[in-house]
Structures are given as C-alpha cells and as structure tokens.
Amino acid sequence: MSPPSRRLQTKPVITCLKTFLISYSLIFWFTGVILLAVGVWGKVSLEAYFSLASGQTTNAPYVLIGTGAVIVIFGLFGCFATCRGSPWMLKLYAMFLIVVFLAELVAGISGFLFRHEIKAVLGSNYKDAVTNYNAKDSKSIAVDTIQRTLHCCGENQFYDWNTTNYFMQGNGIPASCCKENVVCSPENLKDLDKARDIVNDKGCFSLVTISMESNLGVIAGISFGIAFFQLIGVFLSCCLSRYITNNQYEMV
User: Fold this and answer.
1) pTM here?
2) Which residue pairs, CB below 8 angstroms and at least 24 apart, start in 99-103?
3) Cα separation of 135 and 165, whole Å?
4) Over residues 45-69, mean pLDDT
5) 89-101: per-residue pLDDT in tens?
6) Three-class SS state of 252
7) How many helices and strands, by DSSP H and E, does the chain display?
C-alpha cells in the first residue's frame, strides 16, 4: 500500500484528466452530430452527382449518417465511462476511437488518390446519361437536377442535345436547360436557333467537376479534422485508465 501523500497527489491528476476527457467526449459527440448533418446534406445536395459517378444510387451519404450516429452513441459512452472511472470502459472507448480514426483516414486517402479516376468515370457517365436521356430514369432525373442547379445545358454546350435520341424523337431540348425567369415553349426547345436565347449556353461537365471537387473537399476536410481530433481522445482515455488502475492498485 502506497503512502497517503502519493495517493493524494494522484487524485488531482485523475480529476484533471476526467475533466478534459468529459469535455473531449462532449466535443466528440458534437462532431458526430456534424457528420450526421453532412451526411444528410450530401444526400440532399450531392445525390445527383453521386448517382452519375456510380451509375446508381450511392450509399456514401448513408455511411456518413451511420458513422455520425455511432459517434454520437460512443460520445455519450465516453462521458459515462469517464464519470464511472472504469478502466475497461475507457480502454474500449480508446479502441473505438482508434478504429474510427483508421477507417476515416483510409477513406480520406483513398478518395484523394482516386479523385482523377472518379472525375473520369463521372465524365463518361454524364455523357452516357445525356446521350440516353429519356426524362424518366434516375440518370435522366440527375441530369435535370444538375442542369437546373448549375444553370447549364448539355455536356459541353446546349448543341450537344442535337445528337441525342431524345431530341431526334421530336422532344427537343429538356426544359431543365431553360434560363431562370424565361418562358420556354416546347416549340422553341425543338428549334436550336430559337433555343439559343432561352436556354443556358454553358456546358455542365466542367461545372459538375468543379462543384463535385469543391463539395468533396468540404467533406474530406471535415472527415480528416475529426479523424485527427480522435487521437486526443485516445491519449486522454489511455492516460486516465492507467492512472485509475495504478491508483486502485496502490490502495490495495
């Protein structure tokens, strides 16, 4: 059994570590809420881009939402483990932080390394979606969403629609190409010369890639920031677990 003076010196350290770890866990819980919000935002704002990039509906936003939910739960678990002062709970919390850190790091690095491949796939799929546009399937809906949101038309320019089956079947240029506050009649959209003044003349592909890279940059930045922030939690959890274990051993 250690001298009382040594145990008294240890208690302030444990109290200090508990205060820091509870504060960290609350912040960690808040980052989970942020990931949840980013996942929902990605689902609403980037679904059209993800759909074209993958050729089908993507699960990426759901991964962020799921990760955020798990972080929220373990953030609360971290507060509980700290208040209880349970070494095994603190070690479990540290292990969870390490797993999430590695997962986010691998995902972020993979996205950075394969960004050019993603851009190439997006370009190929977008061209295919315009060529086979029918105004009904998911890719066509994604094209309409992009053209309305980015105020663009066609892959490189609105003339691209001239070679599509949709245009040659007498449907004209999609109404999603129309400029804001301009009335587009079906007859004018079937005539390229008349359509020139009522549709957006910028192509969508360059705007899509710029928007995609910008939005993915926001997501990657948040993910990397949260990932490295978790290392602080690992350090605090391990230190507190060790001090509590040593203190319990010294009291025996």
Assistant:
1) 0.59
2) 100/67, 100/70, 100/71, 100/227, 100/230, 101/227, 101/228, 101/230, 101/231, 101/234, 103/67
3) 12
4) 65
5) 888 888 888 888 8
6) coil
7) 10, 0
